[in-house]
Q: What sequence folds into this?
């Protein structure tokens, strides 16, 4: 089994993981802080949200937040890293086809299904990445590259097998991921098309784009 790992070497472990307090409430408060930060960052933007607002959303004193995270920057990094770790783990567990065309279809349907279930996480992962400091930014970029290389490998295999008609697997991978992620900007669960129907439409567009 392939393993996806992140090694982060910056300011001890400040950005590697959120600090945890010991005690009966830490397992509840920590996730609540993350959920509140995710909602507020997605709604108002990272720069506009204060630690005081996050504390008020959770219902704790602002000083209590620092038992769980060193600062707002570390909190943002934790959200982005958690999203990427979840994405890579979910793709790792996704059933794959035996040939490049089937694997590409699996990737397309997986990406849309995963993203549509996490609109807030997707939004901040693209819109707030620029607010990370250089070291954590590089760490998230490394994880994103790992995911992109999964699609690039499928495209390269299909090209080499004569299944896909394309010249640049890497550039094609960038273009396809941008197209697939864009579904979050317009899809509504109560809209005319169901999620499976949307996935089928995007799979058809992808298949045509790679000349399959």
A:
């Amino acid at each position: 089994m392939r393993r996806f790992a992140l090694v982060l070497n910056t300011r001890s472990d400040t950005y590697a993981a959120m600090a945890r307090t010991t005690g009966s409430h830490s397992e509840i408060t920590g996730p609540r802080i993350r959920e509140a930060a995710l909602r507020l960052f997605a709604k108002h933007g990272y720069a506009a949200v204060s630690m005081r607002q996050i504390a008020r959303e959770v219902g704790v004193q602002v000083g209590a937040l620092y038992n769980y995270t060193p600062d707002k920057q570390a909190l943002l990094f934790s959200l982005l890293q958690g999203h990427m770790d979840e994405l890579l783990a979910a793709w790792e567990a996704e059933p794959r086809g035996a040939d490049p065309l089937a694997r590409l279809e699996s990737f397309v349907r997986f990406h849309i299904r995963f993203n549509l279930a996490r609109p807030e996480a997707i939004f901040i992962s693209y819109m707030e990445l620029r607010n990370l400091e250089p070291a954590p930014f590089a760490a998230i970029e490394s994880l994103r590259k790992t995911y992109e290389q999964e699609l690039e490998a499928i495209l390269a295999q299909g090209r080499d097998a004569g299944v896909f008609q394309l010249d640049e697997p890497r550039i094609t991978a960038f273009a396809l991921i941008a197209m697939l992620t864009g579904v979050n900007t317009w899809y509504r669960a109560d809209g005319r098309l169901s999620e499976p129907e949307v996935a089928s439409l995007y799979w058809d567009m992808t298949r045509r784009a790679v000349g399959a």
